[in-house]
Write a structure and sequence with these properties.
single chain; alpha/beta; Aldehyde Dehydrogenase, Chain A, domain 2; binds NADP nicotinamide-adenine-dinucleotide phosphate
């Protein structure tokens, strides 16, 4: 790739070269649509009796690929392969694991455009969002490798006991758990599979990964990168199938030693409770939903605030865990900011996400599309829809799940949708008399993932001190609540948004994949 560093903050003004490469890759990808893909278990292709199709949400007549409906038997085989591979992989010197993982990161980067073309077709992400998702994946893997190195493999000499007549050495070693399960969501199939997989592997665990049913192709391509990097057989396994059957069989297995689940609150809490039925406590990293607020003070820069809010509310059709779904604006600027939000929103282009001029593609599936109809009906009753509020059904839109970006005002603060993650291109705006009122409302949800603020610098400090969320931005035009990047904005949530309190792509994350062992030797 060129010298340009793609992140979610830089993606709004990419060099032309990026578009050229993406168009070439898209053409190549389109030529291979409809192929069948196996699962990868113990380094071998594995096929199931039943198959499912992955279809393009922008054009549901288009079959992207055919995938295996894995069942309990496949879960068992994948876990057995990972278990058998664990002793050798965990004993492989950590520096060698780092070399292999860096190689996997390099391969993903080499295939950036091919994988991004698939992400765009499979998820409905616009091309820059798709490129961002894939580019973040090697960044997360490399971050995990860097952390391993900076901490010298997490082997630390401790103090020497004050023992008279003996000499004791004490060492702390962080060691991997065993078989690590990674279950990922549809919306960031690359980064949110590859990131946790990379961390688990570099730490010395072996992995079984299961993507969302809507996004098996992207994750298959990622799995191939890990295999092609030369990871030994069974160290990384890829299985596909429904969450309710295959996912449940994986979670229920006593041979899984730890898991990372990224997805909805309801499924995540179910997994948390189910996983607790084992004989003892196993590490459970949950990255769950969000209901992310932006607060706009009377001292805000109107243009920055409106731009950041619109980008975060409608990027990826509002289907980001970090999407800005609630906006609280102080009275003196309310009309001005709201008018500009509505104006910018009505200018957003909806359409084929692979088209370079499009900002919003389709929503992911028929269930999300139906939710859009239900929620907008409910919001029409409760408040005022200022723009959007309808599905797009004219022309080619009828073939996909296209929804108009929707801004809603005047919904009473006790309405249930202020607290419910809709996960759609809908944002709700509310006028407040003071910043204190805004903060009370912002924190009055079970979630605590991301938050945004626009106002004076000293107000921003107050915002950081008082907001209950893991990732917070002030005065950011690139996104009020979205756009974190490993190493800059480690990503994770508080309260119902996450279980560990430590953010991916930060300094305290990799340790979650290892348990500590103290070694005292008395001579
Ligand atoms: P989801 O419906 O909860 O599914 C997530 C994953 O869990 C999928 O692979 C799904 O498989 C699987 N699954 C479903 N039921 C399962 C079960 N009983 N046992 C084991 N696995 C099961 O979430 P989604 O719709 O894909 O993603 C959107 C959600 O993810 C939103 O709530 C969003 O906020 C959240 N998210 C959070 C973060 C974060 O970092 N905090 C990041 C991205 C997304 P199937 O697809 O086969 O059902």
């Amino acid at each position: 790739m060129c010298a340009f560093q793609l992140t979610y903050a830089t993606m709004f003004d990419p060099p032309e070269e990026l578009h050229t490469h993406f168009d070439e890759a898209l053409q190549k990808t389109r030529a291979s649509l409809g192929s069948e893909y196996g699962m990868i278990i113990n380094g071998e292709e594995a096929y199931a009796k039943h198959k499912f199709e992955s279809r393009n949400p922008a054009n549901t007549e288009e079959v992207l690929g055919i995938f295996q409906t894995g069942a309990a038997k496949d879960a068992k085989e994948a876990i057995a392969a990972a278990k058998a591979a664990f002793p050798a992989w965990s004993q492989t010197p950590w520096r060698e694991r780092v070399v292999l993982l860096r190689k996997a990161a390099d391969i993903i980067e080499e295939r950036l455009f091919e994988i991004a073309a698939v992400v765009s077709l499979e998820v409905g992400k616009n091309r820059m969002e798709a490129l961002g998702d894939v580019a973040e994946t090697p960044a997360l893997i490399r971050w995990a490798c860097d952390e391993m190195e900076e901490n010298r493999g997490f082997v630390a000499q401790m103090g020497t006991d004050p023992l008279v007549g003996y000499h004791a050495t004490n060492k702390s070693v962080l060691r991997p758990y065993g078989v690590w399960l990674v279950i990922s969501p549809f919306n960031f199939p690359a980064a949110l599979t590859g990131g946790p997989v990379g961390a688990a592997l570099v730490a010395g665990n072996t992995v079984v990964m299961k993507p969302a049913t809507d996004t098996p192709w992207t994750v298959r391509l990622l799995a191939e990168c890990f295999v092609d990097a030369g990871l030994p057989q069974g160290v990384v396994n890829y299985v596909t199938g429904s969450g309710s059957v295959l996912g449940k069989a994986l979670v229920d297995s006593p041979d899984v030693d730890g898991l990372t689940f990224t997805g909805s609150y309801d499924v995540g809490m179910g997994i948390y409770r189910g996983f607790a039925q084992g004989r003892y406590i196993r590490p459970t990293i949950l990255e769950l939903g969000g209901k992310n607020p932006a607060i706009v003070s009377r001292h805000a820069d109107v243009e920055r605030a409106a731009l950041g809010i619109v980008r975060s509310a409608f990027g990826l059709q509002g289907q980001k865990c970090s999407a800005c779904s609630r906006v609280y604006i102080e009275e003196p600027l309310y009309d001005q900011v709201l008018d500009r939000i509505v104006e910018l929103t009505s200018q957003l282009r909806v359409g084929d996400p692979t088209d370079r001029s499009v900002y919003l593609g389709p929503v992911i599936n028929s269930s999300s599309y139906r939710d859009f109809l239900t929620f907008t009906d409910e919001l029409k009753e409760a408040g005022a829809i200022l723009t959007g509020g309808v599905p797009l059904t004219h022309g080619d839109f009828i073939k996909g799940y296209f929804c108009s970006p929707t801004v809603v005002a005047d919904v009473p603060p006790n309405h249930r949708l202020w607290k419910h993650e809709m996960f759609l291109p809908i944002t709700m705006v509310h006028q407040v008399k003071s910043l204190a009122e805004a903060m009370t409302l912002a924190n009055d949800v079970d979630y605590g993932l991301t938050a945004g603020f626009y106002g004076a610098p000293e107000e921003a400090q107050w915002f950081f001190e008082n907001i209950q969320a893991g990732v917070n931005y002030a005065n950011r035009p690139q996104g009020a609540t979205t756009g974190a990047w490993p190493g800059y904005q480690p990503f994770g949530g508080w309260k119902g948004s996450g279980s560990s309190g430590k953010n991916a792509g930060g300094h305290y994350y990799l340790q979650l994949y290892m348990h500590e062992q103290i070694r005292t030797l008395v001579e």
